[in-house]
Amino acid sequence: MSPRWEPNPDVRRGRHVVYDLHAHLVFVTKYRRNVFNAEMLTRCEEIMRNVCADFGAELVEFNGEEDHVHLLVHYPPKVALSNLVNSLKGVSSRYLRAEFTDRVNRATMHGRFWSGSYFAGSCGGAPLQAVKDYIDNQKRPD
């Protein structure tokens, strides 16, 4: 008896698409200020989870330290990653600055919470070399 094939839960289906897109995102606070504590990170995760849901994405993993956060996001192909990032940073900044006035000194951060830059890396699936080899080895028609 052969083992039963189990579908990959990360592979999602749309009307005309099958996808499995994950991105590793890193956001750094303005001037790398140490503003996060455990309570603030918990609230930041909650806010970012809601923003992802609004985009039809899923926040798979979240963690951070005093001056930055890491996210692993599973997102649909209709979402422009830059738009998702802008919303994640904008919405979280607004809520965190309003709710944690004792930890976020607007004067020293010049009215900003996050640095203007961010890291985004694609992840998951086969290693890049395996994909290159697969494409390279496709049979060309005669």
TrEMBL record:
It holds the Pfam family Y1_Tnp. Residues 18-138 form the Transposase IS200-like domain. InterPro entries: Transposase_17 (IPR002686), Transposase_17_sf (IPR036515). This is IS200/IS605 family transposase.
